[in-house]
Amino acid sequence: MLAWVFQFAVLAIVLAIVAWLVNNVRVNSSEQNIPTGFAFLDQPAGFEIPGNSFRQSQSVSAAIYQGFLNTLRVALAGIVLATILGVAVGVGRLTTNWVVRTICKVYVEVLRNIPLPGIVSFVYLGVVLAMPRTQDSWKLGPLVVANVRGVSVPWVTGSFLRFVLVLLAASAATYAVRRWRLAVNARTGEPAKVGWWAVPVFVLVAFWGAVLVGNGVTTPELEGRLTTGGMTFQPEYFALLVSLVIYTASHIAEIVRGSIQAVPKGQVEAAGALALGSWQRLRFVVLPQAFRIALPAFGNQYLNLMKNSSLGFLISYFDLTKVVSTSIGNRSPAVPAYLLLMVIYLAISLTIAGVVNFTNRRLQLVTR
Amino acid sequence: MSVDPNPPETAVVEHVVVARRGGAREWVRTNLFRTPLDAAMTIVFGLVGGYVLYRFLRFVLVTGRWTIVKRNLSLYLKGQWPDGDLWRLVVAGMIIGAGAGLVAGYIGGVRDRSGLYPAPPSGWRRVREISLRLWPLIALVVGLLLLSTTIGPWVTVLLVLVSIAVGRAVGERLPDGAALILAAGLVAAAVFLVWFLTRALGWDGWGGMILNVYLAVISITLCFPLGVLLALGRRSEFPIVRGIATVYIEGFRGLPLLPLLLMANVALGFFVPQSLTPGKVVRAIIIFTLFTAAYIAEIVRGGLQSVPRGQFEAARALGLSPITTTFRIVLPQALRNVIPAIVGQFISLFKDTTLAGAAMGFTDLLSAASASTKQSDFQGQGVFAEAGVFVLLLFWVGSYTMSRESQRLESRLGVGER
Fold first, then answer.
1. 3-state secondary structure (DSSP) of residue A340
2. Given an 8 Å threshold on Cβ–Cβ distance, is A310 in contact with B259?
3. What is the rounded distance in angstroms from the CA atom of residue A325 to the CA atom of residue A316?
4. Per residue in A186-203, pLDDT tens?
5. Which of A87, B207, B293, B321 can bridge B226 by disulfide, Cβ–Cβ 3.0-4.6 Å?
6. Contact across the interface for A114 and B351, Cβ inside 8 Å
7. Both ends of chain A: CA-CA distance in Å?
8. Model pTM?
9. What is the ipTM of this complex?
């Protein structure tokens, strides 16, 4: 009985605080003649988004949608690249090669201990904007053209959606080949050699599939002061992506190292006693167990990366935060606009957390 | 549990001995050229790493135009702090140094008297140990002193060192049960420092690195009680309390910090009556406190889960009330276990304070660096790299030293033992 009185007292206090805040917003807004509703979403935005066909006359909600896409663009690419770099560095810290080990260690210890806003400003102002002018662009064969206007890399022509579908088909074919090889191995005892089969299958299917649906390749070329062909990343996008990737990778590397070290030593020794080679020990014994340990921490890093993409604001990359702030500068009411921003971020966070939790539950060992 | 001062020789130790016995050639073979692939990696990565190191050293020693750093050193470190009140910073440094010395001396004294641990090395070996541990900090302080043009910084560093030594000497002589009094004294000293320092310059006039440190210290202190309450709430048996705590924690953990600060900058005034509208630094502190409390709550919750259930049950069996059990039995054990994680959170808060400068427009360390590149002498010369490298170095030394020391604290507190 007393317990319930206590609980309702706590609830009443919390509700009272919330009501007080809401009431303050109402009073203050009406005193300053600022609307509290969401009607501003249908007003024309009144600003442009660089690197985008967005027009000033389109509505604020359309601008926020573009910002949402920009946030996803940098977050998804960042998650993929940071995972690759982070795993490489994390494994590198555990190799027997002193040079590789030291480089990876210095990388991790340096980047983990400096603030991300500093990295973003430094990469943008000190590196990307300090790149050469277009006339004397920095070139790496047909692969990269980099100048102060952006960084261009080869890209596919034709429908990008179709290309993604082709890649999915190639992955499916690879998976089928893998299953077939494992079945052959189980039936006849012949070595499965999944790698020898899977990689060529993937490359062949992806290549001929892309040709069939009409995709081609375009490489960046320098024509006078213009870069034509290829895919040009705006300097802001490039700087933000690089900063997020190198920063998050340093954290992922520590997770990878910790998880691999957390696999009991007896497992490796037992695998050795079963005459598995060093690659087999890593591939079939250590990594599957380490992955299971690392997964929740990886999910946290992905969440952090998505949230940190809001730092695009610092260098005027038009992600969600920058779009909403700009729109508030253009007379959208601050309180509802920021609340909407918070709700969108929360929704993305909960989605990522949900995916990670689902995968985690599927992968956890079922014990007593 | 006692620790054997002479642990039995393990396989790892033998391995190291064997490797050393083989001499330099053996070391090169096992660490650099074990296989052909290994040799290729050594050469490729050695060349890449060597080139990066060469470019970096060339930048630091030859091509870097460091005038901007020399000219703006005091702006970076202390913002627009008035010269007449510099003595306040010196006194604050001495108080903080004495506090740190007291804590270190107290922990050392308790360890010595317990007789469970090997005695710390003495004389030159101790100097060597400390300089190996703190080399980035020592190198930075010496470097800054060499850059300074007046005697003031030298005197300051000397006074701080003396107060650390005095604090240590006093701390070692404190009796074992003094932890609570020590903690109360430190909190009192912190409150005094806030009053003492804000008398020189109103909150919103602060800038430079002292602003970053100040924001981080105040916010972590304020968010700690809130975080502990939220953690207890989340583990409570009462569903409504648990629900509120969970929504708060998960909500704040799902939000990025920068938009929260931007919102506080523009919209916090709407949430309170106009007579109460806080200044900018206070707004930043409010947001950092609310935000970090959610993370502290998760850390403390982990600590609470690490306390065996038997402790709680035994206390209840002895007839202690649930509240006494929580605050006298469970929480002390839980908090000891989470001190290193809280230091980690403090480090990330320290790094995050740079966001406040960008979102709210005061000249913290990072904003001061970009502002200094726009001074008339440096405008348009592309010297952000120099200012940026210097500022990032300051942050790096601070975070790196704190994280190393927290690992050391972890082993010294015996986390995970018992």
1. helix
2. yes
3. 11
4. 888 888 788 888 888 889
5. B293
6. yes
7. 37
8. 0.87
9. 0.86
